[in-house]
Design goal:
heterotrimer; B: about 290 residues; mainly alpha; ABC transporter involved in vitamin B12 uptake, BtuC; two-stranded antiparallel ribbon; about 75% helix; C: about 240 residues; alpha/beta; Rossmann fold; six-stranded mixed sheet; four-stranded antiparallel sheet; 10 helices; globular
Chain lengths: ~375, ~290, ~240
């Protein structure tokens, strides 16, 4: 036995000060900045107009959808064009619970997410029988089935849809609090409440995705994305991992759907299960921003919002330009705008690479474990 | 309406769906590419035929013959200069590029033709029918079905009896070794897509004369094509015809029960096949 | 007179990994040249570079004096250079006969090799012509692969690891065909790990190790020790 063997440990945190970290100086600075930003955003309903709050709501909900789609497609390799199924299911669950069961909308939101997640179980069962582009279209077909089925549900308006009763939104949990403490009118309070929930959701989604990627499961996920067979050979249960991610993103997407339609207060099957609004725009955001990164969707949603504001009046031309931009990006800058920035500057605001840090630099005169 | 009638209508509808699917099947077989804009290209071809009919005053069938080489050229250029760049191990680029293409085509058509519903008039043929014993069948659906069979026979002849077909099959097996034979994969892929566009033109003719269409009708056609391919099983054109027929029958039976259920029953049939026979009903053994 | 095929300071990379570091070989008309070496020596990379599967700088590979290093495989085949790839690489959805036929797709010229003459060279293939090519035994598949390359009537035939995975008696049969192929006019480069077999048929031999040529000349010039040294990179009595 070689003499040095007793001093070796099996943990990554080996002796002599080596440790595995993902934090970098830039990311620490960024963490501080984003904390400040989140605090500022939380105070927003008291500082800016309702119109701005509604814009921010749109940005935050699209961001949450984008981070979810990115987790699914960019990290788990499950390219779905059927996430609108979960938006619609979450939204309809909310409307159903509020209108038919008289539940408080705020309480109904997590239940709506749960409903979407339950729907995801048979969906995954069917869709996972298909691969690659066929998986994508399969998820689309199942979303269509959802749309057609909910259009048959006459109690919630059938094909033409229905609205949330005004009392339901005006008497939501927390509204009276806001009215008493801050003198907000009920409708402004409802907007603020939805906004805060959206902010919490977006922040939580990002934090969750980041923590996931830094965890053991995240490493397994990256391995599966790069080479599923090799990952399986190393003991990564690819199927279980993908299913878990699929169910989780369904849950979160369902919650976003419920939130969006709570704010809109009016639902119809074509709107809630719209491919354009809940998949096409989301895909655009992620691809332009940078797929497979956390920073990408954030950048993408900002760009998308600016483009929407500036050009959506141009109707079809605008959409054509968006489609064209997505094509060009995919061909020439497949890692999106953030990818271009990252290549130039090497910045990583949400670093997930594991770095070995801290130990002393030893100079051995011979290499190898046996000297 | 009798059950036999419904069944016959479903079978004939299957011919149309098989035409939708044949091009998709051909392209996927050779280069593992699923063009998400496939349905929109069918609609584009339908508008092209419409334009030729209204500006040149031609009969729709003649107009389709005129449109076919134009669509071939479009498909060739699309594949050679755009889609060939997306081929590779990563499945994301072709999916996202064709998805973007779908949006571009739909909105381009909306700008060019407005959202109005259109129809290609086939004159007397539209309502003509032929009686087969107790039941009658429309002439157009019969011609559509016959065309589907002709197209599949012709494709099979091409694939199994010609040098080009040999090149298709070799390229599909092993692109690198095919290039060692002197086959240029980029050209082969472009020819395949061009050919798929010719089939798309034929499908568009029958789509446009049968029912109203508008710029947003593409995605639904893609879904029917896709369902027909999956039900039938990858790798066999006759399987695709069978898949189309089963889909067609499911839809017409659904419509007979309740008109609102037509498409839904089709989807359910698709999901059932996926549940019990994930590889389709007539998959090619090799896969 | 320029050689038939010649490489000059050929380098080849797989991504960032360099597989060949400046290799010079030549093949003249009527010759059979062997390239031997251990696994990973760069022999297959050399073949693939000449055949156009790997692109190099144009002037690194010359065909009758013309630079072809940057040409892709379809263009190289059209010039009369055919590769029998390592691992046979037959088309699995094609029959034996179809595999042969596709060999003439890019270059269909008059010459000694036709379906009939290939069936005369390897009679067993005629019996199996309608079978799916991959249903044949290893040795028979190798015959199909060689026949497929011959269908383009090449001036230069490149053979990459013909004997891999085959039984000795089968290897003998295949190499027996070589004199006929050579007699019909093709110049041949064979890449082999089976040194004895290679030296028997070759007019000249190159040995490669770790991406470089370590020995070149006529088989008769070298003894076992020389070959051993060039192959493994150590003096024979240094190896434990």
């Amino acid at each position: 036995m070689t003499p040095g063997l007793e001093t070796m440990t099996t943990e990554i945190e080996a002796p002599a000060g080596w440790r595995v970290e993902t934090r970098t100086r830039l990311s620490t600075i960024f963490a501080v900045i984003s904390l400040v930003a989140v605090l500022a955003l939380t105070a927003a309903p008291f500082l800016v107009s309702r119109g701005v709050i509604q814009d921010l709501f749109f940005i935050l909900t699209m961001l949450a959808l984008a981070q979810n789609w990115n987790l699914l497609a960019g990290y788990a390799g499950l390219i779905s064009v059927g996430q609108q199924l979960f938006v619609g299911c979450g939204a309809y669950a909310l409307f159903g619970l509020v209108i038919l069961a008289g539940l408080d909308p705020i309480l109904a939101i997590p239940l709506a997410g749960l409903f979407a997640m339950i729907i995801a179980v048979p969906t995954a069962f069917f869709a996972f029988r298909l691969y690659g582009p066929y998986f994508a279209i399969g998820t689309w077909v199942i979303a269509e089935v959802g749309r057609l089925l909910f259009a048959q549900w006459k109690m919630l308006g059938g094909g033409t849809g229905t609205s949330l009763p005004r009392e339901a939104t005006r008497e939501m949990l927390g509204i009276s609090l806001l009215q008493d403490w801050f003198g907000m009118r009920a409708s402004a309070a409802a907007d603020a409440l939805a906004y805060w929930l959206a902010l919490a959701l977006a922040a939580l989604t990002i934090v969750f995705v980041y923590k996931l990627l830094r965890s053991k499961q995240g490493l397994g996920l990256a391995a599966v994305r790069d080479n599923e067979t090799a990952a399986r050979a190393l003991g990564v249960d690819a199927r279980k991992l993908k299913t878990a991610i699929y169910l989780l993103t369904a849950f979160l997407t369902g919650i976003v759907g419920a939130l969006i339609y709570l704010q809109k207060a009016r639902i119809s099957p074509d709107a809630a299960f719209s491919l354009t609004d809940w998949t096409a725009y989301v895909v655009f955001i992620v691809v332009i921003g940078g797929i497979g990164t956390i920073e990408g969707p954030i950048l993408g949603v900002i760009i998308f919002f600016l483009l929407q504001n500036a050009f959506s009046n141009y109707g079809s031309w605008y959409l054509m330009a968006l489609g064209g931009l997505a094509i060009v990006t995919m061909l020439f800058a497949p890692r999106g705008l953030w990818g271009l920035i990252c290549d130039r500057t090497g910045w990583e605001l949400f670093p997930v690479r594991r770095l070995l840090k801290g130990g002393p630099l030893r100079q051995d005169d011979k290499g190898g474990p046996n000297g | 309406m009798s059950f036999i009638d419904t069944l016959l209508q479903g079978v004939l509808l299957g011919g149309l769906y098989a035409l939708f699917a044949a091009g998709l099947s051909l392209v996927f077989g050779i280069m593992r590419l699923v063009n998400l804009a496939h349905g929109d290209l069918i609609v584009l071809a339908a508008f092209l035929i419409l334009v030729i009919v209204s500006t040149l005053g031609l009969d729709p069938f003649v107009a389709a013959v005129v449109a076919a080489p134009l669509m071939f050229a479009l498909g060739w250029v699309l594949q050679y200069h755009l889609l060939n760049r997306t081929l590779g191990k990563d499945i994301l680029p072709p999916l996202l590029v064709t998805f973007g293409l779908s949006i571009v085509i739909q909105n381009g058509l909306l700008e060019g033709f407005t959202a109005d519903s259109r129809r290609i008039s086939a004159g007397a043929l539209e309502t003509a029918s032929v009686s087969l014993g107790n039941i009658s069948a429309g002439v157009m659906p019969l011609i559509t079905f016959a065309s589907a069979i002709l197209v599949i026979v012709a494709l099979n002849q091409l694939i199994y009896r010609t040098a080009l077909g040999l090149a298709f099959r070799a390229t599909s097996d092993d692109v690198v070794t095919a290039s060692l034979m002197g086959i240029r994969p980029n050209s082969i892929f472009a020819i395949a897509t061009g050919l798929a566009m010719v089939i798309v033109t034929i499908a568009a003719l029958y789509l446009g004369t049968r029912a109203n269409f508008d710029p947003t009708a593409g995605p639904a056609r893609l879904i029917y094509a896709f369902e027909a391919v999956i039900i039938g099983g990858l790798g066999s054109l006759w399987g695709t015809l069978a898949g189309g027929i089963i889909l067609g029958i499911a839809q017409t039976v659904g419509a007979a029960i309740n008109p609102e259920w037509q498409i839904l029953v089709g989807h359910i049939a698709f999901l059932l096949v996926l549940l019990f026979r994930p590889r389709g009903l007539f998959p090619r053994a090799a896969d | 007179m320029p050689s038939l095929v010649e490489t000059r300071a050929l380098t080849a990379f797989y991504g960032d990994f360099q597989a060949i570091f400046g290799v010079d070989i030549r093949l003249d008309a009527g010759e059979t040249v062997a390239v031997i070496g251990a696994n990973g020596a760069g022999k297959s990379t050399l073949m693939r570079s000449i055949a156009g599967i790997i692109t190099n700088r144009a002037e690194m590979i010359l065909h009758r004096g013309e630079p072809i290093g940057a040409l892709a495989a379809p263009d190289v085949v059209r010039r009369g250079i055919a590769l029998v790839p390592e691992g046979r690489k037959l088309f699995s959805s094609l029959t034996v006969e179809e595999n042969l036929q596709v060999g003439a797709y890019g270059r269909s010229v008059d010459g000694p090799w036709t379906l009939d003459s290939i069936y005369r060279l390897f009679p067993i293939l005629k019996e199996r012509r309608r079978n799916p090519a991959t249903a044949l035994s290893g040795g028979q598949q190798q015959m199909v692969a060689i026949g497929r390359a011959l269908m383009s009537n090449p001036d230069i035939l490149l053979c990459d690891e013909l004997s891999l995975g085959l039984a000795p008696v089968v290897i003998k049969d295949i190499y027996a065909a070589f004199s006929k192929i050579s007699a019909a006019g093709a110049a041949i480069i064979i890449v082999e790990q089976d040194i004895a077999q290679a030296l028997k048929v070759a007019d000249r031999v190159y040995c490669m190790m770790e991406g470089r040529v370590t020995l070149s000349g006529q088989p008769a010039e070298f003894d076992r020790a020389d070959i051993h040294a060039a192959y493994f990179g150590a003096e024979p009595n240094e190896l434990h």
